[in-house]
Amino acid sequence: MDTHRILVVDDEKSIREMLRMTLEYEGFSVDEAESGMKGLQRMAAVRPDAVILDVKMSGLDGIETLERMRAEFPEVPVVLLTGHGSIETAVEATKKGAFDFLSKPPDREKILITLRNAITQSSLLRENIRMREEIHGSDEMIGAAPSIGALRETIMRVAPTEAYVLVTGENGTGKELVARALHRNSGRAGKEMVEVNCAAIPHELIESELFGHEKGSFTGAAAQRIGKFEQADGGTLFLDEIGDMSPSAQAKVLRVLEEGTFERVGGNGRIAVDVRVIAATNKDLQIEIREGRFREDLFHRLNVIPIHVPPLRERRDDIPVLIHFFLAEACRKNKLPPHGIHESAIQRLQEMHWPGNVRELRNAVERLAIMVSETIMPADVTRFVYGASEAETGELPMDVSFQEFKDMTEETFLRRQLERYEWNVSRTADELGIQRSHLYKKINKYGLERKG
Fold it and tell me: Does 405 have pLDDT greater than 80?
């Protein structure tokens, strides 16, 4: 069994020494830090399984340190250590993501029980994340573009707060990933994030979906139903494509956000909920407001923190990194052997427009992983991404850049000439009036291979 590592952050040396002796006797590995800042530095260096953190410290106090730890290391449970009279502070801190709190001087048995429970919960969380990534793919935002760095920084700053967030961006940019990251790094991470796609639900059913309904409230309501707001109580409600929500539902959502209560459809009693709402849309809500399709007061209520997710065309330098990440993910997900990809194939993918953004790129890479046996070549990109029919018939798509069009045309032409002369490179070069070395470079560039 692996030894669990505990980080103790306390400015009292006697407390640190007492905890070290207690924990090491029970088989734990212990690291120490005498301040919040050093605790954060040590946490980054050793990645402990749990943290014991003092509330009252000079400099960066325990509450500030807790918020930083939860933002940067949300999977690591933090147990607060409080002196006499600071219990109220500790209770408040649990709302900010602390696993539990202990009073000073800490009781030995209480310490051990609390830590073991924290580590068990953390292990389950990590295993759930691993299993979810195997099934659905990672929620991680990949890329080193300045816009993605700024996006991560905003998420880390905003996530621990209770502020409502409006995420905007084109389809496929990763708005849902932003919502998940906000929830995962918040004090509500232990509760559920409930997702509602407002565009996928018929307008006549959206209110029942959000607020639930009582039995017999309308035709087909054979039993009481709990709505998404109730399901998300204590957690996060993600309203995706909120720009498609009906006007009547918008009015009711606004009232919930203002009052924290609602009525089920067909009900007459108000239900109180504690929900943080994150909304997302691919529409320009200012235009929707001017044209009377979206409530301005709801927009201002939701738009406390606006977050814009950039399209893939504005971060093309991230495409090679994304390709390698998605390729490894696709092979793992589909139980395929690891694949390689030729640099020219990466370049071909990097030059494409990707109107469907990161989602379209991910799907294209998964298709290549499944359809190609080993190394992905430029010809495979032409066949399986641009489309097999275009590659084989020469009917090239017109929604590409001029350079893409030229490359695709040249590749199709050279393949047919090589086939015409039975892959005799010398004769093909002579007939085309080019040097053999130049033709070999083109063959390598496009990954042309003789079939059969």
Answer: no
Helices (H), 47-161: 62-72, 87-95, 108-136, 146-158
CATH annotation of 146-310: 3.40.50.300
Q: Which is the CATH superfamily of the domain at 5-133?
A: Response regulator (3.40.50.2300)
**What are the pLDDT digits (tens) for 54-84?**
988 888 888 888 888 887 777 789 998 887 6
Going by pLDDT thresholds of 50, 70 and 90, the confidence category of residue 181 is very high
Candidates 324, 328, 374; CA nearest to 349 is 324
Map tokens 């918040």 to a residue.
186
The span from the CA of 250 to the CA of 296, in Å, is 10
- The Cα 219–Cα 357 span in angstroms is 41
- 0.85 surpassed by pTM: no
Provide CB contacts within 8 A for 373, sequence distance 6+.
Answer: none
Q: In what order do the strands lie in the sheet with 78-82?
A: 29-33, 5-9, 50-54, 78-82, 100-103
Which of 198, 299, 211 lies closest to 245, judged by CA? Answer: 198
Q: Which residue has the tokens 């929620």?
A: 139
Query: Could you tell me the CA-to-CA distances from 435 to 8, 321, 407, 427 in Å, in that order?
Result: 70, 35, 19, 10
